[in-house]
Automatic annotation (TrEMBL):
Self-association state and partner proteins as the record states: Consists of a catalytic RNA component (M1 or rnpB) and a protein subunit.
Xref: Pfam families: Ribonuclease_P
Gene Ontology biological-process entries: tRNA 5'-leader removal
Name recorded for this polypeptide: Ribonuclease P protein component
Amino acid sequence: MAAPDRRVGRLMRRPEFLAVAGTRRKHVAPGLILQVRRHDDKQRPAEGEPPIRLGLTASRKVGNAVVRNRARRRLREAARQILPIHAAPGHDFVLVARGDTAERPWTDLLGDLKAGLKRLGLWCEAEG
């Protein structure tokens, strides 16, 4: 049996972000907002692309450019650690930075992402 594809692709175009936000399926936590959309026939990744796609966003409400970039880096790393192992494949995820994202303790930020996946029913236990 082939090993599951653990890669995470990227959402880059505005319509992809809007499609995820349009489902209104989300989890709000102090450190982040997790938005989720299941792939459908219209916006399914092309053959050979990763089964999980991720988009990151941080508006100016989060802070100046330095703070927004730090928040995005932290969200990207949290997603890199958790999504490939524990997220259900076949979904697009958007992580939205909040005012507390850049300064939130790292374990709390990871906990926010884990809690969001569990609450939305997308948590998968690691194999092995």
